[in-house]
Amino acid sequence: MKKQSYIGELSAEFLGSMFLVMAVIAPAIMFTEVLEASAGVTLLANAIAVAFVLCAVIEIFGPVSGAHFNPVVTLVMLFEKKICALKAVLFMLFQFMGGIVGTIFSRLMFRGHVNYVIEISESVRNEYMFFGEIFGTFILVLAVLLLVKAGSNKIGIVVGFLVGGQILSTSSTMFANPQVTVARMFTSTAAGIRPIDGLVFIGLQIGGALLAYAVYRLVFSKNTPQVEEK
User: Fold this and answer.
1) Per-residue pLDDT tens digits for 7-16
2) Spatial contact of 204 and 176, defined as CB atoms under 8 Å apart
3) Cβ distance 113 to 29 under 8 Å?
4) In sequence order, which ranges of the chain are alpha helices (DSSP H)?
5) N or C, which terminus of the chain has less Cβ within 10 Å?
6) What number of CA atoms fall less than 13 Å from residue 158's CA on the CB side?
7) Eight-class DSSP state of 186
8) For residue 82, how many other CB atoms are within 10 A of its CB?
9) DSSP 8-state class, residue 224
10) Prediction pTM value
11) How far is it, in rounded angstroms, from Cα 227 to Cα 166?
12) Is 17 helix (H, G, I), strand (E, B) or coil?
């Protein structure tokens, strides 16, 4: 791999992860702190923002890095031998860094409405929400695997719609991403999660991803029909 393309891929993962986290955290600040909206309106705004931004960044950075923006997606791409181990580790590192920078930038944009740029969350997300993380990560990773196998040119819009919809229909509001989970530990907004719950979420996300990969290998990997492009 040429050095320039290597830098480009890592930069794409960093930027995509940053903008994804900003799409999660900035609406929480905008709608709760600035517009004083209800929790329901804030959640709907968050779902729309994440769906739109995720669709866009996948289309923008997909041709550069594959647009993972998620360590568990990178993990299953490693299992599928679509990425080498060293590159996978570097992708994950830049994803986590991008997410944390996204948290900082989100709060800097609303500095007049939030007291701290970085603040450890105390938002409790436990018990019944745990199942939501397994389910949400499972469907996300399975969808990515099937779309990549089929050679679909609609990955951005499908994944964007899927994640936006699952934000509104899972008990955990669809984190399904370890780097996003870590980034959300450092915000006291409605988007936050306390670190102890976040660590459990990450474990469940990895479990959901491994379950999705197992189902993919057992059921779909040999006989998925190719998408007929129109």
Assistant:
1) 999 999 999 9
2) no
3) yes
4) 3-29, 39-65, 71-79, 85-109, 129-150, 155-169, 178-184, 195-215
5) C
6) 15
7) T
8) 13
9) P
10) 0.91
11) 24
12) helix
Question: Which runs of E-coded beta strand occur in 35-83?
Answer: none
CA dist 183 and 198 (Å) reads 10
- Sketch out the chain's domains with CATH numbers: 3-220 (1.20.1080.10)
Count, residues in the chain:
230
DSSP type of residue 189: S
- Using CB atoms within 10 Å of the CB of residue 211, give its burial: 0 to 12 exposed, 13 to 18 middle, 19+ buried: middle
Question: Token digits for 109?
Answer: 């944009």
Give the burial class of 115: count Cβ atoms within 10 A of its Cβ; 0-12 exposed, 13-18 middle, 19 or more buried.
exposed
Exposed e or buried b per residue across 123-139, where buried means at least 16 C-beta atoms within 10 angstroms of its C-beta: bebeeebbebbbbbbbb
List the structure tokens of 164.
């936006």
The pair of three-digit structure tokens given for residue 145, joined into one six-digit string: 């695997």
pLDDT digits (tens, 9 = 90+) for 160-179: 999 999 999 999 999 999 99
